[in-house]
């Protein structure tokens, strides 16, 4: 596992096993990814120009992988923003808690796979950006 540090997010390269019959990559919780995986979901057939995400989590960390095609993930910690182009199925983006995320610029046929630390819990979501900023300010004081 190889990591590239960034100010908001972290790209983690997973093991890539090259084989003439097709390559294989592995992501294991608490080994390749710094949490146990409780939920897996994926988005696909995203229409051209559509945006996904648009929320933050109070507790749940996520690991986002472009298993096919490409898309851009923009992370926002309330102060700084950073965008990451995901286009390799052997790399993923670690998204920590208290981070607003949007996903856009999906290529045709792109598949976004998300490995989540927690089962779905609506109360963990912050779905309005102004509420997110207020939440971040309340945690500072």
Automatic annotation (TrEMBL):
Organism of origin: Prevotella scopos JCM 17725
Limits of the Sugar 3,4-ketoisomerase QdtA cupin domain: 10-136
Protein name: WxcM-like, C-terminal
Gene3D superfamilies in alphabetical order: Jelly Rolls (2.60.120.10)
InterPro entries xref list: QdtA_cupin_dom, RmlC-like_jellyroll, RmlC_Cupin_sf
């Amino acid at each position: 596992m190889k990591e590239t540090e960034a100010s908001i997010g972290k790209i983690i390269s997973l093991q890539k096993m090259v084989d003439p019959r097709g390559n294989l990559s592995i992501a294991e919780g608490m080994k390749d990814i710094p949490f146990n995986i409780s939920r897996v979901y994926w988005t696909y057939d995203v229409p051209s120009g559509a945006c996904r995400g648009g929320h933050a989590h109070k507790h749940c960390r996520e690991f986002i992988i472009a298993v096919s095609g490409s898309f851009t993930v923009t992370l926002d910690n309330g102060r700084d923003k950073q965008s990451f182009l995901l286009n390799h199925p052997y790399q993923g983006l670690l998204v920590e808690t208290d981070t607003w995320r949007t996903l856009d610029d999906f290529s045709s046929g792109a598949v976004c796979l998300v490995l989540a630390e927690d089962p779905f819990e609506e109360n963990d979501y912050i779905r309005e950006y102004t509420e997110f900023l207020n939440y971040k300010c309340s945690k500072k004081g």
